[in-house]
Structures are given as C-alpha cells and as structure tokens.
C-alpha cells in the first residue's frame, strides 16, 4: 500500500520506450486504479479514525455487504487490487528514475547560461572602458572639427549670399540691356523671373538681401510699368477709349481704317507685356479692400491692363459722384448705378471681341468682361459704403436706395452675367446695421401695404371674377396682393450672400403671414353673423388661397435650400427636438408648416360654421317633413304617379338655394369640402330624426324612398357622379324599408339565427347593406308595419 499523502499526486509521464498500445493500456489501467483508490480513500474518510483496518472493513462492507452470494467477488477483487498495486509500483519506479535526470539537465543548462553571462559582462566592461578612452582622445579633434564645420557653413552662407546678390545684379543688368535695345518683352520676362525669386526669398531671414531684392524689383517694375502704361494709353486713345456713348463702341467695331491692324497688333503686344507685370505689380499694389464688416469674398486684384483701361472711367465716376457736384445727389442712387450699367454695356462688345482673344491666346482663365465689371463694381461698393450711413434713418431714402440697388443687381446678373460669387451690392446690404434697418423698413412698408389692401373697397372682390377659367380659386384682391407682396420680398432677398440673412427674411415673411391671418380672423369675427355672406366667403377663399400657395412654395428649390440651412442652424443651437429635426431632414415637414397648420385650422373652423348655419336652416325647413304620417300613406299601387312629399319642399328648396349660393361664392375645392361635410350631417340627421323616429307602412316607405332617391340625392348630382354613396345611412335604410315582405322575413330570420356571425354579413351584403350594423338593421326592420299576420 502507498502512503495516504502520495495517493492524490498526478503521475509524471514516463519516458520509457513503450509503443502506443502499451501506453494506452497503461493509461486506462492507471485511470481505473486511481478511480479505485480515490473511491477507497472516500470510504476511508467516512470512518471515524481513517486507520487501515477500518478502511479495509469499510471497503469490503461496501463491495460485499450482507449478501453472502457477493463473497464470490472476493477473488476478483483481490486480483484487481493486486494488479492495481503492481501498476502503481511501476509508475513510482518510473517517476523516481526520470526526475533526477531532468533536474540534472536543467542544472547543467543553468550553469552554462551563467558562464555565458559572465563572459558578456566582462566584454561589456572592456568595451565601456575602451569607448571612454577613445572619446577622451577624440574630444580635442571633435572640437577642432566642429569649429571648422561652422567656418565652412558660414563661408557657404556668405557665398550663397554673394551668389544671390550677383544673380540679382545680373538680372538687373539684363533688364537694363533689354531696355536700352528696346526689347521690352524680354525685359518684362526677366522682371517676372526676378519677382518670382523675390516671392521665394520671403522665407529667408536675410532682411537686407530681401530689401535689396524688393527695391530692385520695384525700381524696374516702376520703369517698365510707366513705359508700358504710357504706350498702352496712347493705343487706347487711338481707339477713342473709353466708349462713353453706345455709338462709339459700334464705330470702333464697324469702321476699320488702314492703320487698324497695326493698332490692334500693338494693343495685343502691350496688353501681353502688361500682363507679365501682374506678378510684380501684386508685390507693391495692395487691392482696395472695404472694412471686414462687409464680409466681401476674397478675390485677386484686377489684372494690370484692365486696371489701366478702367482708370479714365474711375476718374469720371469720382468726378461726378463725389464731392459737391450736382450729379452727386444722395437721393438719386439710380444715377451712378445706371451710369455703371451703361459703361459695362458700351464696352462689352470690344472686350469680348478684342481683349478676350488676347487672354485666351496667352492661356489666361480671366474673363475680360467680368474683370472689367468687377473693377467698376468696386466703385459702386465704395459709393454705397459711404452713402448708406447718411440715409440709414430716412425710411423713404433708404427704401429707395434698396429698390434701386436690387434693380441694378438684377440687371447686372441677368443681362451682363455677373456671378453672384463675386463681390456685389448684396454684401453691403448684408452688413449688420444696414441689414437690420432693411428688415425694419421692409416690415414697416409691408404692414402699411397690408393696411391699405384690407381697407380698399375692392379688397374682397376678385380681379378675375368675370373670367371663369382664371377665377377658379375666387381669390379676393387683398389675398392676391398680399401673396404678390411676399413673392416680391422673396425676389428681393433671394440673392443675399449668406443663408443666415435669408433665414431672417424668411422669419419676416412668416411673421407677415401670421399678421395677415390675424387680420383676416378679426374681419371674419365681424362677419360671423352672416357666415354665408359675400365677405365671409371671400375671407374663406383668401385663407384657402394663402394656404395653397405656401404649400406650393414649400416644394420650391429655394425654400428647400433654406430648409436645409435652417436644419443646420437648429441642430447647432439645439432648438428643436430630434423628432422635429428628423422631419425637417426627411422633408416630411417644411419651413411653412406652422403657418399652413394655423391657416388650415382657421379654414376648417370657418367651413364648420357655414355648414352648421346651413344645417340649422335645413333642420328648420324639415320640421314638417319630420311630422309626416308615414304610417298611413297610400301604397305605390294606389297612386297613379309618385310625387314629392309637399312637406319636403321647404327642406329641398332651402338646400338647393344654399348650395347654389355657396357654389358661386366659394372656390371649387372649398365648396367640395363644404357639401361633403353638409351631406355627412344631413345623412345622420335624416336617418336618426326622421327614419328612426317613425314607423313606415308600405306607402310611407315607398314615399321616403322616392323623396330621397329622386329628389334629395339628385341635388348633389352636379357635384359627383353617385351622390347616394354619400348618404349611406339613408340609402340603406330605404333599401331595408322597401324590401318585399318575403325577403324581409328571410333576412330577419337569418339575423336572428346567426346574431353577428359571418353568414349575417353575407346576407346583408346580398341585399346591398354595407354600412349599417346588424343591430341597426334589426331596428329598421322592426319599423316596418307591413308584416303578414302569422298568428303569433
């Protein structure tokens, strides 16, 4: 037996040369023995002291027990235990012989590693001392070498400095030689090269070299520019530039004297040479910039030859529209705006036909006409920036200025193709102080216009009342004028440069719509007692028209773009819920939704009031019809011809008159909603107050059917093809009341037997009943008095 402390230790894998099957059998047997031992140990632990005799007794007790027949197992148990013992002894011997070998090998390897480590440490110490010694020896050499390198670098810098000076002087001498030989094109090309070198040198810290380079470029640039400008102005003078009158530009294009080819050739040569000076000119000439508050888009300077061409026009503009000249009148902005448009128009043909080909030939992307317009636009912007503060608080003058500027912008963009991305007058009007004043004035004049349009005698009369095809909406003059006002405001602000400014104008439009809605509501309340009157209907038409136009505008590309801009603003400010933002982003809602919802609510309230008014009149007219003696009317066979009940005449006459009146006063879409709402109430009223409140004999049922199908329903046949479909309760009640007796009996039996099951629905559908419930059908059948006497 093994000691108890060694039983639970796992065996070490033996290293003997057994084959695979032997190893497998040995493993299975060892697993069995271990299981037996573990089981034996558990039995021993169940005894009191855990000694060997008790353990054996417990094991035998478990295996044999009180069954004498189990004693036959003892031989087998002894044999098994003996085999287990032999296996355990073999494992112990294998383990005890293998472990020392492994330990010895590990110790040997550790010793070798220690020796290698000691060797490396010795080498490291030797190398460290050698390196320190070498560094100490090389230190003086390094100091001498570093000083020599610094001297070499200093000399190289001086040499490079001298080379730059030499190159600058060489380029300067070349320009001088070219000018002495009158070779201006080469001089200009050399100056361009020198200007490019100047730009490259800007990163250098050699301030004196930079100053020398810049002074040299400036010197030659001035000489070349003055010479070329003088020659260019002479050529322009020969062409009678500038063209002050429209006839001049036509004369230049039509008349071609003998010297014309030479003039245009010189023009092209000088233009190209001046164009070469553009790079150096930008180094010394800063473009005129208005204050940052105007937020003008960044743009390059106007090209040099166009600047020279603009000079006489700039002088004329400043002469006439600055200072104390009679033409400089602050209340007449149209004078200088019209003058600039005239100049652009006069020179367009010459620029397109003579100057643009030159630019295309040299590979420039500049558009001559737009460059010319851009130069003149700066004059306008400067003039506006100076004038606006002077008239900011004079509403009439300021409003006139804005109107003229907007007309100028419209013609500039539409006729002359000036891009909206260039600096324009809208940037000046977008400046904060000016823009807020513009909004205020726009609101003020819009409200004044609303007051005048609502107080006009023709406010509620349609301009197209005599033209049937045009007057489908029956729009009163005030509503059409108001929407025209909103449309004009849209045209005025749609070219503003930033979305934020456009959104502010959009808010102004929404405020105006709400204000107009409130005014319409106030007038409507005054007309409440005459809800069928002409003015009340005109107000309703106005509300419907404004709502329809706003819904149409919501799909306009301009307002969709504003919606996207508003979405970005709301997202930044967190002013809307995620649901609202999602609706805006998915285009489920629009920027006018709030206004449209309020107008639709007002429209519904007004229609409801009209429907209620007509319905009350119809109910009053139907009092006699309600009291008709349906039980005692003669049957159809007893009458030669069926005729309308006399008591139904007031009801139908009232209904006809009101339908005709409102059809003439309301637009088609409103009238359609009106009669459908009225029919819905009328259907319920006749069903509940007349049919369910009475009993019907055969004659009464036939008379009701005749009154409804031949008189009431046809009143609405002008407005739809099948008016009976809008009177579902009445129509189906008439069907039930006029069923022949046999069919009625059969239907009642089916209903009583099925009580709501599918067969009853099929039976009802078979006779034409789809709307009424089974209980309602049973009630209607019970209103019949012409049942046969069955003796029950």
UniProtKB/TrEMBL annotation:
Keywords: Coiled coil
Presence of keyword Ligase: no
Region span, Disordered: 1-22
One GO CC annotation: Dsl1/NZR complex
Entry-linked Gene3D superfamilies: Dsl1p vesicle tethering complex, Tip20p subunit, domain D
InterPro entries referenced in this protein's UniProt entry, alphabetically: EXOC6PINT-1/Sec15/Tip20_C_dom2 (IPR042044), RINT1_Tip20 (IPR007528)
Residue stretches in coiled coil: 71-98
GO BP annotations, alphabetical order: endoplasmic reticulum to Golgi vesicle-mediated transport; regulation of ER to Golgi vesicle-mediated transport; retrograde vesicle-mediated transport, Golgi to endoplasmic reticulum
Short name of one Pfam family: RINT1_TIP1
Keyword Coiled coil: yes
Family of this protein: Belongs to the RINT1 family.
UniProt name for this protein: RAD50-interacting protein 1
Organism whose genome encodes this protein: Bos indicus x Bos taurus
Lineage: Eukaryota, Metazoa, Chordata, Craniata, Vertebrata
């Amino acid at each position: 037996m093994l000691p108890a402390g060694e039983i639970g230790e796992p065996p070490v894998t033996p290293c003997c040369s057994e084959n695979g099957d032997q190893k497998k059998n040995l493993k299975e047997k060892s697993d069995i023995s271990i299981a037996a031992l573990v089981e034996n140990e558990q039995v021993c632990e169940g005894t009191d002291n855990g000694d060997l005799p008790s353990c054996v007794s417990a094991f035998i007790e478990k295996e044999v027990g009180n069954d004498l027949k189990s004693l036959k197992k003892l031989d087998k148990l002894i044999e098994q235990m003996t085999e287990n013992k032999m296996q355990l002894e073999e494992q112990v011997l294998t383990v005890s012989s293998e472990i020392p070998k492994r330990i010895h090998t590990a110790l040997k390897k550790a010793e070798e590693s220690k020796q290698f480590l000691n060797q490396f440490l010795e080498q490291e110490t030797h190398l460290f001392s050698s390196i320190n010694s070498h560094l100490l020896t090389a230190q003086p050499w390094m100091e001498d070498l570093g000083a020599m390198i610094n001297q070499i670098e200093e000399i190289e810098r001086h040499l490079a400095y001298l080379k730059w000076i030499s190159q600058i002087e060489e380029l300067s001498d070349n320009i001088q030689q070219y000018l002495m030989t009158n070779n201006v094109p080469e001089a200009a090309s050399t100056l361009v090269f020198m200007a490019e070198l100047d730009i490259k040198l800007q990163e250098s810290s050699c301030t004196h070299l930079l100053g020398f380079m810049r002074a040299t470029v400036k010197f030659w640039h001035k000489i070349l520019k003055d010479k070329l400008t003088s020659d260019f102005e002479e050529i322009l003078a020969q062409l009678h530039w500038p063209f002050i009158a429209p006839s001049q530009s036509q004369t230049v294009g039509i008349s071609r004297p003998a010297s014309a080819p030479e003039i245009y050739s010189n023009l092209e040569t000088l233009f190209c040479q001046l164009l070469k000076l553009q790079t150096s000119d930008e180094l010394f000439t800063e473009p005129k910039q208005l204050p940052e508050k105007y937020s003008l888009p960044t743009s390059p300077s106007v090209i040099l030859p166009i600047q020279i061409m603009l000079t006489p026009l700039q002088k004329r503009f400043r002469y006439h529209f600055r200072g104390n000249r009679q033409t400089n009148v602050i209340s007449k902005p149209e004078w200088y705006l019209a003058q600039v448009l005239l100049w652009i128009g006069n020179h367009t043909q010459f620029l397109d036909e003579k100057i643009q080909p030159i630019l295309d030939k040299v590979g420039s992307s500049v558009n001559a006409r737009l460059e010319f317009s851009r130069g003149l636009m700066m004059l306008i912007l400067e003039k506006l920036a100076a004038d606006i503060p002077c008239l900011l608080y004079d509403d009439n003058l300021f409003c006139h200025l804005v109107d003229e500027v907007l007309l100028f912008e419209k013609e500039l963009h539409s006729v002359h193709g000036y891009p909206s991305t260039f600096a324009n007058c809208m940037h000046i009007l977008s400046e904060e102080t000016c823009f807020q004043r513009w909004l205020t004035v726009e609101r003020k004049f819009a409200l004044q216009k609303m007051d005048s349009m609502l107080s006009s005698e023709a406010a509620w009369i349609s301009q197209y009342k005599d033209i049937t095809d045009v007057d489908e909406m029956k729009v009163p003059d005030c509503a059409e004028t108001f929407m025209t006002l909103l449309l004009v405001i849209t045209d005025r602000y749609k070219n503003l440069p930033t979305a934020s400014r456009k959104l502010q104008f959009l808010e102004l439009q929404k405020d105006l719509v709400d204000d107009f809605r409130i005014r319409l509501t106030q007038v409507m309340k005054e007309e409440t007692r005459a809800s069928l009157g002409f003015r009340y209907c005109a107000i309703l038409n106005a509300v419907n028209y404004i709502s329809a136009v706003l819904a149409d505008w919501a799909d306009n590309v301009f307002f969709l773009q504003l919606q996207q801009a508003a979405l970005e603003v709301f997202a930044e400010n967190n002013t809307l819920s995620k649901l609202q933002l999602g609706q805006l982003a998915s285009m489920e809602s629009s920027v006018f939704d709030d206004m449209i919802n309020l107008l639709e609510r007002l429209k519904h309230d007004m229609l409801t009031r009209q429907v209620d008014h007509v319905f009350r009149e119809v109910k009053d007219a139907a009092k006699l019809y309600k009291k008709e003696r349906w039980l005692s009317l003669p049957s159809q066979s007893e009458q030669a011809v069926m005729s309308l009940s006399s008591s139904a005449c007031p009801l139908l006459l009232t209904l006809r008159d009101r339908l005709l009146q409102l059809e003439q006063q309301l637009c088609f879409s409103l009238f359609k909603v009106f009669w459908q709402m009225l029919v819905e109430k009328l259907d319920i009223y006749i069903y509940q107050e007349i049919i369910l409140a009475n009993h019907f004999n055969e004659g009464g049922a036939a008379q009701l059917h005749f009154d409804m199908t031949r008189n009431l329903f046809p009143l609405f046949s002008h407005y739809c093809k099948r008016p009976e479909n809008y009177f579902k309760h009445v129509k189906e009640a008439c069907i039930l009341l006029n069923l022949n007796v046999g069919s009625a009996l059969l239907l009642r039996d089916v209903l009583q037997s099925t009580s709501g099951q599918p067969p009853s629905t099929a039976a009802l559908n078979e006779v034409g009943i789809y709307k009424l419930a089974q209980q309602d059908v049973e009630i209607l059948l019970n209103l019949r008095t012409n049942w046969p006497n069955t003796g029950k």
